[in-house]
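Treating backbone geometry as a discrete language has practical consequences that deserve illustration. In the encoding step, the backbone of a single protein was reduced to a row of integers, each denoting a local shape. The amino acid sequence and the backbone structure tokens for this protein are reproduced below.
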Amino acid sequence: MNSSQHRKKLIPSGILLFLVFCIMNSAHCLIIPPDPFESTDRFALLIPAFDGTIVRVQAKVKALGQDPLGTGEIWAFLQYKLPGNNKFFSSVSSSISIQGLNTATSTLIEFDFSKEPIPANAYHRRLQIYYQVNPGTLPLQLAEYRPEQLLVTSSANAYQPPLSPSGGTLIFGPITFLREREQPNPTSADSMFKKYF
């Protein structure tokens, strides 16, 4: 009789220990791959605007060869194709003045394509990054990224403040409403309170 009571207590605690062990094992087996842009220099990040056009590109750049690069300018050149057209189009970023580039460590640089944005439906994109000491010299290609090396961030997570309506102010809360720009009318606020509560 005593052993049956003892078994009744052991079975639920045994099941509980088994479930805890299974959960711990599955958590240890869960491997989250690192972000490829963060872990290597082999990827570039395309940053779209709200309409989907690519307006900025981030890439990690370093000097090629044995010697570091001195003061000069750096810019990006992006080629792409559009649906229904087989030829390549291109966009050039604004140039950036730099103090130099090291051969050992990469520098994160953001290129601005806002003057020549890349359309949202562009595909087969290729990015090349160039360095030039002064306008009279030939540019030196520092990096080239193939289509599979260009990662696109989503523009959905960016915050866009709502436009204020004309003639009033938009107030956010549990109940979003439009407040007129003139003085509030206490009788209308009273009736609104009674209507909702």
